[in-house]
Design a protein that fits this description.
Elements (H helix, E strand, L loop, with lengths): L3 H32 L7 H52 L5 H41 E8 L2 E9 L16 E7 L5 E2 L9 E9 L2 E4 L5 E4 H4 L4 E4 L3 E4 L12 E7 L5 E2 L15 E8 L5 E2 L12 E3 L6 E2 L21 E2 L12 E4 L5 E2 L11 E4 L5 E2 L15 E4 L5 E2 L13 E5 L20 E4 L4 H9 L1
Parallel strand pairs: 1-5, 8-10, 10-12, 11-13, 12-14, 13-15, 15-16, 17-19, 18-20, 19-21, 20-22, 21-23, 23-24
Antiparallel strand pairs: 1-2, 3-4, 3-5, 6-7, 6-9
Helix pairs in contact: 2-3
């Protein structure tokens, strides 16, 4: 029959054995991570093994110093106590009537002190060796950290004189390309950089012009790829992004045509708002072709396309947002289609090369078209338009070549002025569809400052075109 004491002993031994097996297995899996000081860690590994392990190592080194000092102190105490007992034993033995039992107790204590002394000496040797190893690590290893914003995305420990190990992590920034890693003073590092001290590295970016997905902000086609083609197709949810700088002095040789795909219904705001000063001497967009699927041009859709000369609008456009064509300074003509019901304020601001502008009959209300239409010669409000409000063409000679204006008979209200020519000497001919001038019209309804103009009543749109074309 097995005694209960033996059963308990076997259970304890089994638990100890299982613990040893588990510990050895864990060390086998994690040994490299725990021991290697030159691995490049992922963010997750860094958080688990990186800085914590490094700091733990430093703390362990310090604890070794404390333990070494404590062992040396205990050794000194043990040797002192042992010496005292040895003296007492020798004194007792020198007497003729020595107490043999007491001497035996002292000698047992001396043997115990000797055992403690041996153990302490062994611990001191081991601690000195461990402490020396950690001091070598502290002296010869450099900590290298990679940051993306406030997040550490990589960390490792480099030996003295080793070249830098770059993390495979690639930082991302909206509308930018990643150029590489830099130090705190902006020095660019590479895989050839020698690590001489602790390094904290952050990403360096540069603007990446090109075609982007408007929903994900992902780059669809880089500017470099764009200029290798003559015609660029823009799909739905794709927009063009430039570098955000103005430069009207680029002498670019390559000419691009942008084609809007048939699946596009809305051209989003700032889709074509770009300048490429940093990509000088490469390309310019001179023409945009739009399929009839497009119904909406959002605010500033084509704003800033300073090389644009020609645009083919969708026949089904219903809405054009504010500043949609602002600063398209080389745009010579634009055909606003019938069916357009809303034309945003200042949509044509500084389209300084436009010579003729026809406002379609579907546009019931016309407001402020913009300023800076310096080459505009002919302005037409077609039959069907009902209201003119605001200062349509700006002030102070900004349409100094304006010569002909046609006002349809359907217009029943003008709450601003069509044009306010200040000190303009050229004569402007107004042609009206009305056979008689409405009662609400006065000398300042159409222009101001006693402008030099002449009115012609009862003129049809067709007759006006014949006059202008002749």
């Amino acid at each position: 029959m097995i005694k209960p004491r033996k059963i308990v002993l076997w259970v304890v031994l089994s638990i100890i054995l299982v613990g040893l097996v588990f510990g050895i297995t864990w060390l086998g899996v994690n040994w490299k991570k725990l021991q290697s000081k030159s691995n490049l860690y992922t963010h997750e590994e860094y958080m688990e093994y990186g800085d914590d392990r490094y700091q733990a190592g430093l703390q362990q080194g310090e604890s070794y110093r404390v333990l070494l000092t404590d062992c040396q102190r205990k050794l000194s105490q043990v040797e002192s106590e042992k010496s005292k007992l040895v003296i007492q034993v020798n004194t007792l033995k020198a007497k003729g009537d020595a107490d043999a039992e007491l001497i035996s107790q002292y000698e047992a204590q001396i043997a115990n002190f000797e055992q403690q002394r041996t153990e302490l000496n062994n611990q001191i040797v081991r601690l000195q060796a461990l402490l020396q190893a950690y001091e070598e690590i502290e002296m010869t290893m450099s900590k290298v950290e990679f940051y993306d914003g406030d997040i550490i995305v990589g960390c490792y420990y480099s030996k003295e004189g080793e070249t830098l190990k770059l993390t495979e992590y690639v930082p991302k920034k909206k509308y930018h390309s990643f150029d590489g890693w830099v130090t705190a003073d902006g020095t660019v590092v590479t895989s050839q950089t020698i690590v001489e001290s602790n390094l904290t590295l952050t990403p360096s970016f540069s603007w990446q012009a090109g075609i982007y997905d408007a929903q994900t902000d992902g780059l669809v086609m880089s500017w470099e790829d764009m200029i290798s083609n003559d015609i660029i197709q823009i799909q739905d949810n794709e927009v063009l992004r430039g570098d955000g700088y103005y430069n009207e002095y680029i002498d670019q040789n390559k000419e691009l045509t942008i084609c809007v795909s048939s699946d596009v219904k809305t051209i989003k705001g700032f889709s074509f708002n770009w300048n490429f000063s940093k990509y000088g001497n490469k390309a310019k967009v001179k023409k945009v072709i739009m399929t009839d699927s497009v119904e909406i041009l959002s605010d500033s859709a084509f704003s800033g396309m300073e090389f644009l000369e020609e645009i083919e609008l969708s026949k089904n456009i219903k809405t054009i947002g504010i500043y949609a064509f602002a600063n398209c300074s080389k745009l010579v003509s634009i055909d606003l289609p019938e069916g357009l019901t809303s034309l945003g304020r200042f949509a044509l601001t500084k389209c300084s090369m436009l010579k003729r502008l026809v406002l379609p009959s579907s546009l019931k209300t016309v407001g402020e078209l913009g300023v800076g239409l310096k080459e505009l010669e002919v302005l037409i409000f077609k039959e069907g338009i009902e209201t003119i409000k605001g200062l349509v063409l700006g002030t102070d000679n900004e349409a100094e070549k304006l010569r002909y204006i046609y006002v349809a008979s359907t217009i029943t209200s003008i709450t601003g002025q069509i044009y306010r020519p200040h000190d303009v000497i050229q004569k402007i001919d107004f042609y009206f569809g009305w056979t008689t001038m409405p009662d609400w019209v006065n000398q300042y309804t159409f222009t101001a400052y006693d402008a030099n103009y002449e009115t012609h009543l009862g003129v049809t749109y067709e007759e006006f075109l014949q006059i202008v074309n002749d």
